[in-house]
Write a structure and sequence with these properties.
The structure holds two protein chains of two kinds. By secondary structure, chain A is α/β, with parallel strands linked by helices. Chain A has five helices and five strands. Chain A has a five-stranded parallel sheet, with helices on both faces. By secondary structure, chain B is an alpha+beta fold. The chains are: A alpha/beta, B alpha+beta.
């Protein structure tokens, strides 16, 4: 099954995302901010990255930009989780190399459905 | 797939309360006029996280509220808005309001909408300069509106089927830019998704593909003509392409000829209308479905059923501590298997090995116990961190200028102590703020700096944690205290009291020195309650004060409430445990050292000091052959209530760590005894309450 890195500084959101994905059978690893995520992404190559945008230390958009610089992440799908007020962030995210986005609030089914769009 | 979201609620609440605390301390540390953008950022992120989480977990009221806060903070963050004192105060009020809301939701109580609306109005006033206006709808309205038109907004084809009129399909011209692949998107996946809407035929145009030698596999050179036979709307298809709309040129055209005539669906036509009218609602729509229970305050019946807070108590532990613990467990397991090996085919020549193993086991067990206890230890900052806000709010209310200094916030103490010490500390700090620190004018007149200081200190001493509240206020007036006590009939007019005893008067029930009760302190909960609470934690409280200079209140508390180092002593057939921290020394005395003072009982002389002797045998009414004369037994010199005295016991047994079992929970409260423990042989030993015994013997 595909491996996914779930990045969110909020533990409850991260747990929710990770639990949902694990239940669906994905191999999930968690990271609590951009710095942590980048480190973990370098250790192994994930099939997909799901990241929050607003995070301390390194935000989601910078994370995506940094990851796209790495040869192994050139074409890996990267989804960002934004809130409706962060729509302008979508453009910024796209420019950084994000594959797509999910608008918060979302429920587990929407998350899985969206992932199917980019995996497989 | 259905996932029970309620399992994440606990984490979410904890996170919210942490976030609120971060917001609060951030707001308090903001220096108006010289704003640290990182602080604003932190505050913003906390609000943002709460909003995101509450939306996802279905707490719409909270999400709505934080949305407004977030907007305000976002403007501050971008520098579009000045950070002003009133704005900070409104935000602080909002933090309180959110805390209240979340607590209600957590306990499954009704959210106080009136209070929320008030705070929300203040926020909107700050944001728009008007009290809401078009933004006025209270969160409750949204809730009412949310459930009905919901699903329509979701671009799910199945649900839209009926709303389609004539279209039988679409011709889509899809021309990706060279860069499309660089965002991790892939036309193949897009096609797979569209093909779920209907019958898809694609035609790739490869005229533009560059010669093989020049081909860059990371660029997309192909364009497509797609034909989709479907009854899905243009919007539904566009939704699929929304991620790549800036990375391609895309055109939609209805298929020229329907394959077959379609029955007009007149009834379906009006359906889309409500969608357009309720655009605001759709954002909340997905939430309503997964967690209907949390969406609105529970009905009264539910509330009464769960009257007690539902939250299970949990604790956050440093991973280092857990690693140590696991390490220890490993050691114990190794020792255990080693002992197992010795026990197999045991012969007497292995006794040495056995002893060594047992010694090792003892050491590891002790270490393990230490590590487990360590897990319960929290930095006192959990309590201290609430006080800057308290001091800020109260000093503003009182028009006093006061700074709070925190010292030793990282001092660790048992979780139970952390939880129970808060209320007494709040009371003591309120007292210092209200009665201790003078008005700025009075301070200047007294030659002191205008700004008063309250210092909150924590440090370890011996097996105790000491918490001190030091203010540089007016100090306690001995004469005033004494005359007040006499007036209230608490002491005899002729009584001669030491300075310490006079200060202790404020701990007496029914004593209050403030000439006028204010709403800050003196709400009927007196210092006597504070002292009782601290004593029930096994601690004590001292006051040192100098008129005009200030007051220091020191609280001594045990580090943990579960285990103590004890000295077992024998009195007749009974064994008692004396807490090691209270023991100064143990001695044998001779008849020469004994002294009888008229009316004061037996004393003995220890290095030029006469100390009273307390006979354990008499206190506990032990009949069996106990030492009757002080020189036949052992005197254990202990310190309690600030005074030294000697306990007369038969003999000293061993020192050991004992697990404290509550006597109250299993039997009833016994004066002079703080608890009980079970000894190695299975018998029960009482743990002596040294201060209590000293008090008992004075009577």
């Amino acid at each position: 099954m595909a491996s996914i890195l779930a990045v969110d500084d909020s533990a409850s959101m991260r747990k929710m995302v990770s639990f949902t994905l694990k239940t669906a059978g994905y191999d999930v690893e968690e990271a609590e901010d951009g710095v942590d995520a980048l480190e973990k992404a370098k250790k192994r190559t994930f099939d997909c990255i799901v990241t929050d945008v607003n995070m301390p230390n390194k935000d989601g958009i910078t994370l995506i930009r940094d990851l796209r610089q790495l040869p192994q992440y050139k074409h890996v799908p990267m989804l960002m989780l934004t809130t409706e007020s962060g729509m302008e962030k979508k453009q910024e995210g796209k420019a950084a190399g994000a594959t797509g986005w999910m608008v918060k609030p979302f429920n587990p089914d929407q998350l899985l459905k969206t992932l199917l769009k980019v995996l497989g | 797939m259905s996932i029970d979201m309620s399992q994440f609620h606990q984490v979410f609440f904890e996170e919210c309360f942490e976030g609120l605390e971060a917001m609060e301390s951030g707001l308090l540390s903001l220096d108006i006029g010289d704003i640290d953008s990182e602080v604003i950022n932190t505050i913003f992120r906390a609000a943002h996280s709460i909003k995101g989480g509450s939306g996802t977990f279905g707490f719409t009221v909270v999400a709505e509220y934080t949305h407004i806060m977030e907007t305000l903070l976002d403007e501050m963050r971008d520098g579009r808005r000045q950070v002003t004192k009133p704005a900070v105060d409104v935000l602080l009020g909002s933090v309180d309001c959110l805390r209240e809301m979340l607590t209600s939701i957590q306990n499954e109580e009704e959210v106080n909408m009136a209070s929320a609306a008030k705070h929300q109005a203040a926020l909107e006033m700050e944001l728009h300069g008007t009290a809401g206006g078009s933004h006025a709808p209270a969160p409750a309205h949204h809730e009412a509106a949310a459930p009905t038109p919901v699903a329509v907004a979701a671009p799910e084809p199945e649900e839209e089927e009926d709303e389609i009129e004539e279209e039988q399909g679409w011709k889509i011209s899809f021309c990706p830019y060279l860069s499309l692949l660089r965002t991790g998107n892939d036309p193949v996946r897009l096609f797979r998704e569209i093909s779920e809407l209907g019958e898809l035929t694609s035609h790739a145009t490869i005229e533009d593909v560059v010669p093989f030698a020049e081909l860059d596999p990371e660029e997309c050179n192909i364009t497509w003509e797609l034909k989709l036979v479907t009854d899905a709307t243009e919007a539904a298809i566009k939704e699929i392409f929304s991620w790549v709309e800036d990375d391609c040129a895309i055109e939609f055209a209805p298929l020229a000829k329907p394959k077959k005539a379609k029955k007009p669906k007149a009834a379906a036509a009006p359906a889309p209308a409500p969608v357009a009218e309720a655009p605001k609602v759709e954002e909340h729509a997905p939430v309503a479905a997964p967690a209907p229970a949390a969406k609105k305050p529970p009905v009264e019946a539910d509330a009464s059923k769960n009257a007690a807070p539902k939250a299970s108590s949990s604790i956050r532990v440093d991973t280092d501590k857990i690693d140590t613990l696991i390490n220890m467990v490993g050691e114990v397991v190794i020792t255990q298997s080693m002992l197992g090996l010795v026990g197999e085919n045991f012969t007497m020549d292995k006794v040495g090995l056995l002893k060594r193993g047992l010694a090792q086991l003892e050491r590891h067990t002790r270490d393990l116990q230490q590590s487990v206890m360590n897990i319960r230890m929290l930095p006192i900052s959990f309590v201290f961190s609430r006080f800057p806000r308290l001091v800020h709010d109260i000093s503003t209310k009182l028009d006093k200028k006061i700074t709070l200094k925190l010292v030793g916030e990282n001092t660790e103490v048992d979780k139970a102590v952390v939880e129970l010490i808060n209320d007494p500390l709040v009371h003591l700090i309120r007292n210092s703020l209200d009665h201790g620190i003078e008005m700025p004018a009075d301070r200047i007149a007294a030659g002191k700096p205008e700004m008063g200081t309250i210092e909150l200190k924590a440090y370890h001493r011996g097996g105790h944690i000491v918490i001190e509240i030091v203010d540089d206020g007016r100090g306690l007036d001995k004469n005033k205290l004494l005359s007040k006590a006499i007036e209230k009939g608490l002491v005899e007019e002729t009584a001669i009291l030491s300075e310490k005893q006079i200060f202790e008067l404020i701990f007496m029930p029914g004593f209050s020195t403030a000439e006028q009760l204010t709403d800050i302190s003196g709400r009927g909960v007196g210092m006597d309650v504070v002292r009782r609470n601290i004593q029930s934690l096994g601690g004590n409280i001292d006051i040192i004060s100098e008129l005009g200079k200030g007051t220091t209140i020191a609280i001594h508390l045990p580090l943990t409430l579960a285990i103590l180092d004890g000295q077992s002593v024998a009195v007749g057939d009974e064994t008692y445990i004396v807490p090691l921290v209270s023991i100064i020394e143990s001695i044998n005395i001779t008849e020469k050292m004994l002294n009888k003072v008229a009316g004061k009982g037996e004393t003995f002389k220890l290095r030029n000091e006469y100390l009273p002797i307390i006979r354990m045998r008499e206190i506990f009414n032990v009949k069996s052959g106990a030492a009757t004369k002080p020189n036949e037994g052992v005197i254990v010199v202990v310190e309690g209530q600030g005074a030294l005295c000697g306990f007369l016991v038969d003999e000293l047994l061993g020192q050991q760590q004992v697990v404290i079992k509550s006597l109250e929970a299993n039997y009833r409260r016994v004066e002079g005894v703080s608890g009980a423990t079970i000894l190695g042989d299975g018998s029960v030993a009482l743990i002596l309450d040294v201060p209590g015994l000293v008090r008992l013997s004075v009577r």
